[in-house]
Automatic annotation (TrEMBL):
<keyword id="KW-0520">NAD</keyword>
<comment type="similarity">
    <text>Belongs to the AlaDH/PNT family.</text>
</comment>
<feature type="binding site">
    <location>
        <position position="268"/>
    </location>
    <ligand>
        <name>NAD(+)</name>
    </ligand>
</feature>
<dbReference type="InterPro" id="IPR051168">
    <property type="entry name" value="AASS"/>
</dbReference>
<dbReference type="GO" id="GO:0004754">
    <property type="term" value="F:saccharopine dehydrogenase (NAD+, L-lysine-forming) activity"/>
</dbReference>
<dbReference type="GO" id="GO:0005737">
    <property type="term" value="C:cytoplasm"/>
</dbReference>
<dbReference type="InterPro" id="IPR027281">
    <property type="entry name" value="Lys1"/>
</dbReference>
<feature type="binding site">
    <location>
        <begin position="187"/>
        <end position="188"/>
    </location>
    <ligand>
        <name>NAD(+)</name>
    </ligand>
</feature>
<keyword id="KW-0560">Oxidoreductase</keyword>
<feature type="active site" description="Proton donor">
    <location>
        <position position="91"/>
    </location>
</feature>
<dbReference type="InterPro" id="IPR007886">
    <property type="entry name" value="AlaDH/PNT_N"/>
</dbReference>
<dbReference type="GO" id="GO:0019878">
    <property type="term" value="P:lysine biosynthetic process via aminoadipic acid"/>
</dbReference>
<feature type="domain" description="Alanine dehydrogenase/pyridine nucleotide transhydrogenase N-terminal">
    <location>
        <begin position="5"/>
        <end position="137"/>
    </location>
</feature>
<feature type="active site" description="Proton acceptor">
    <location>
        <position position="73"/>
    </location>
</feature>
<dbReference type="Pfam" id="PF05222">
    <property type="entry name" value="AlaDh_PNT_N"/>
</dbReference>
<protein>
    <submittedName>
        <fullName>Alanine dehydrogenase</fullName>
    </submittedName>
</protein>
Amino acid sequence: MLNLGLIREEKQPHDNRVAFTPQQCQWIMKHYPDVTITVQPSTWRCFTDDEYRQAGIPLSEDLSHCNILLGIKEVPTEKLLHGKRYLFFSHTRKKQPHNRRMLQAILEQDITLIDYECLVHPDGQRILGFGFFAGVVGAHNGLLAYGKRTGQYSLVPVHRCHDFKELINHYFGAKLPPVKIVITGSGRVAAGTLEVMGLLGIKYIPPEEYLINSYAYPVYTQLKAGELYLRKSDKTYSREDFHLHPDQYDCRFLPFVTATDILMNGIYWDERIPPLFTWSDLAKDNFRIKVIADITDDTNGSVPCNLGDSTIEDPVYGVNRFTQQKTTPYASDTIDMMCVSNLPNELPRDASQYFGDQLMKYVFDELLKTESETVHNATIAHGGQLTERFNYLEDYVR
Ligand SMILES: NC(=O)c1ccc[n+]([C@@H]2O[C@H](COP(=O)([O-])OP(=O)(O)OC[C@H]3O[C@@H](n4cnc5c(N)ncnc54)[C@H](O)[C@@H]3O)[C@@H](O)[C@H]2O)c1
């Protein structure tokens, strides 16, 4: 018998997402007679307690009978239950200082920690992530900001919509000016931005044509890593080599800054990868980009004028192109930056459903097995010890 518990998100500020929707819970209980699900009540979850109740899913404050507890964000140490098997995003594998105490408590309390982020397919691709809806919301927010800046159209903020379906209804009849949009990346985030392009009927143009032509209707192009980076020595690109030695590559984004109104950035980035452009490029007269939806969202990262996160309530700030200072947006010398770090929380019902679908498809049966390589490889702590794979965290917890 497997007793699953969906825990209430306790980390501040409260996250509104959940691992399984009421309908998904119902489906699981119907198809897996040996599995029960109990939901800890919550007033801030995107699905209400009543929605679970109506789906026939029991609610209980006490989850001590559960053998697996599913959350989303880190669990405050005082809320951890001794000896349980937990799945959530622990953000400990890079030795994040703010989660050190939590991992220590997990070890002290004999808890098994399986980290969603470490669950991967055999080819190394991550199984779970919220990137798709980050891409959807980020693209929408970028367009909304451009509409505010130009005064040419207006869009409803996503977080005012009940769900994605309602957002799509708002797109009916939306007419955009002949704007040029560049999308970077090819992962889940990029897929979400492409979804919005499709829904709004924005036309795809190959990069070479996009660079030299003007259009009487809205268009976008997409730059994947292979189109963005070239090895300095021989002007080639190999994915494997780039991932190993990104510092040996040049970035080819610059021509696009003179041909683009909105940048939607969804490319993977770390410190060794060259940025898309520099501050001095930004100060030049021919720098045409007016709005950047930096969905990747690394402060001073692939987009150097990302000066830190913005919030769902106040998603856009301005950056003065010459003084490099943060200011109010939509002024003549500003580039307007959308740098929300928790975009999927604007569409929590859909983001949760998508997450639950992936969890169901690729992880659930693994959890039921006594031995699973997928689960084993994502297990950070077990029986009061770090697992072999995560032994490198020893100095972090000691
Ligand atoms: N703002 C938000 O709310 C939000 C939400 C989710 C994700 N994100 C960020 O967006 C970015 C993209 O996320 P995603 O979900 O599309 O990722 P993804 O895992 O779906 O795709 C990442 C892409 O980067 C490439 N990649 C992976 N490892 C790489 C490496 N070492 N070097 C170079 N390229 C590599 C992959 O080939 C893939 O094409 C990430 O930085 C992520 O943190 C932001």
